[in-house]
UniProtKB/TrEMBL annotation:
Domain Mandelate racemase/muconate lactonizing enzyme C-terminal, residue spans: 130-222
Name the record gives this protein: Dipeptide epimerase
Alphabetized SMART domains for the sequence: MR_MLE
Pfam families assigned: MR_MLE_C (PF13378), MR_MLE_N (PF02746)
């Protein structure tokens, strides 16, 4: 017989995490645990207000399908039972973990990976003054890939330049989190190109990103808030060059794998990304990491305290999870 447990867990962030939409000092996550005949599966999600989600609402949505879960709900049936989003992610990943624990077959083997190598993750530099961001980048100079948050009301060109001057050798990804406008995007893209940024992530709000088809893009543009699952993919052709897959958007690993297949079929290179969560949220995303041009799974590195056991990080190198954590 199955049993479901749903919990709301809080993990302090080391310092403060700031993007264009605001700042946070803790990661508040929802954890789904499914137990069956001694096997235990765990899944974590990070509800995101940008998508109309609340912690309480996500926990309630999982509780609402308790009867189906405890009656033996499968991952396949879950896809039509719940919409894409954080709640489905926690349940889907818990079911993946439960299946791995019951069968003894690791999740990466189930999806066809014969090797599960470590990956080099980007490391996030929060939005701040140009001087503070340059200082934070300099402290992280040994990390090969930095994802730099922009989208302030003014001063982004100075931030773009200051970070590059602080880390002349690093691969830099600019993430505006929808914070730029039709009036300033071309100047910001030009500054990124001049400073040698490899990628610009979601410069415009998703509702107005059609403007990207009307401008010259001197740096590859990656969709984040504009892409959730396969249904949102087709309209990105001609607007974006790369797709950022996040399990909290797709509603779990099951749809994330399908989205990766569909995106690659359309010619999109991939990034696997994350919200600010613990190693339990990053672990399922590691299944997709070998397919990706960029990996951004630094959530636990931003926390003052992670789950135990957690993922193993050596600098920016992140290793696949041990079975005790997930999968």
């Amino acid at each position: 017989m199955r049993q479901l447990t749903v919990s709301i867990d809080r993990f302090p962030i080391a310092g403060k995490f700031t993007i264009a939409r605001g700042s946070r000092t803790e990661a508040v996550v929802v954890t789904a645990t499914i137990t069956e005949n001694g096997a235990v599966g765990h899944g974590e999600c990070v509800p995101y207000p940008r998508y109309g989600e609340t912690v309480e609402g996500v926990a309630a949505a999982i509780e609402a399908i308790r009867p189906q879960i405890e009656a033996g709900l499968t991952r396949e049936a879950l896809q039509s039972l719940m919409p894409a989003g954080a709640a489905r992610n926690a349940v889907d990943c818990a079911l993946w973990d439960l299946d791995a624990k019951r069968s003894g077959i690791r999740a990466h083997v189930t999806v066809g990976l014969t090797r599960w190598p470590p990956a080099t993750t980007a490391y996030t530099i929060s939005l701040d003054t140009p001087e503070a961001m340059a200082g934070a980048a300099a402290k992280a100079a040994e990390r090969p890939i930095l994802k730099v948050k922009f989208g302030g009301p003014e001063g982004d060109i100075e931030r773009i330049r200051a970070v590059r001057q602080a880390v002349p050798q690093a691969t830099l990804i600019a993430d505006a989190n929808e914070g730029w406008t039709e009036g300033n995007i071309e100047a910001h893209l030009a500054a990124c190109a001049e400073a040698g940024y490899a990628l610009v992530e979601q410069p415009l709000p998703a509702r107005s990103d059609g403007f990207l088809a009307r401008i010259t893009r001197p740096v590859p543009i990656m969709a984040d808030e504009s892409v959730h699952d396969r249904q949102s993919l087709q309209r990105l052709v001609g607007l974006y060059d790369v797709v950022n897959i996040k399990l909290d958007k797709t509603g779990g690993l099951t749809e994330a794998l399908a989205l990766a297949d569909a995106a690659e079929a359309l010619g999109f290179p991939l990034m696997i990304g994350c919200m600010v969560g613990t190693s339990l949220a990053m672990a399922p995303a590691m299944v997709i990491a070998p397919r990706c041009r960029f990996v951004d799974l630094d959530g636990p590195l931003l926390l003052a305290k992670d789950r135990e056991p957690g993922l193993k990080y050596e600098g920016s190198l992140v290793y696949p999870p041990e079975p005790a954590l997930w999968g």
